[in-house]
Write a structure and sequence with these properties.
By secondary structure, the protein is of the alpha/beta class. It is 42% helix and 17% strand. It has a single domain, classed as Alpha-Beta Barrel (TIM Barrel), CATH 3.20.20. The structure holds zinc ion.
Amino acid sequence: MKIFDTHAHYDDDRFDEDREELLIKLKKNGVQHFVNVASSVESIDSTLKLVTEHPESYAALGIHPSDIKGINEKIMEYIKEKILSFDRCVAVGEIGLDYYWGEEAERADQKKWFIRQLELAREVKLPVIIHSRDAAEDTFNIMKDNHAEEIGGVVHCFSYSKEMAKEYVKMGFFIGIGGVVTFKNAKKVVEVVKEIPLESIVLETDCPYLTPSPYRGERNSSVYLPYVAEKIAEIKGISADEVYDVTYKNALKLYRLKEDA
Ligand SMILES: [Zn+2]
């Protein structure tokens, strides 16, 4: 069994006390690779530090819509420079729109930096990791208008309708499925998993957040991904092995990585 966690935040301070032990445990549990996703300027530096020290991991660099306060062109240049000088940077992210946390007055700025970072991904020729919450229509319109189908990537922690999921699949995007699919109230995500091909699904934790049940509420880590894989297998009426196998290959394809030896 090989697992690829396509979205993790192991630089988060909730991992400070046992990070090294935990990352060793991941390998023993079949987690071959993870992508550590930055969200703020500070987490760009901590992500690069962590990924440098862990050759099995990869970095994604970008500014989350909830962290765009104070962002400017200088910072965009800084990110670009880091991406181009670090060979295990595989994506621009996480970027997008978050109308759940964001104030209404901030929305224009969120859109501006979302579009700017789509452009950055185009410049550095990397896929994007999209974060979108309570902003289905604006996210989709911006991606359409900016020809995101030419950029490629993943819509992480997908929370919208199955119709929307199918539109993203049509654009060639992957759909990130994590702990939410195991929650009792996960009807929408279950429908999404049912409707889209397994070839478009990647596994993710978003750890330390969104721990699958029965551990919901605790700190998440890639060690819990089998709960997600088994739920997907159950929904699709296939074996968990098939889910591991196909989603692993999907992750390599998403981040344009070569198959492991
Ligand atoms: Zn995240």
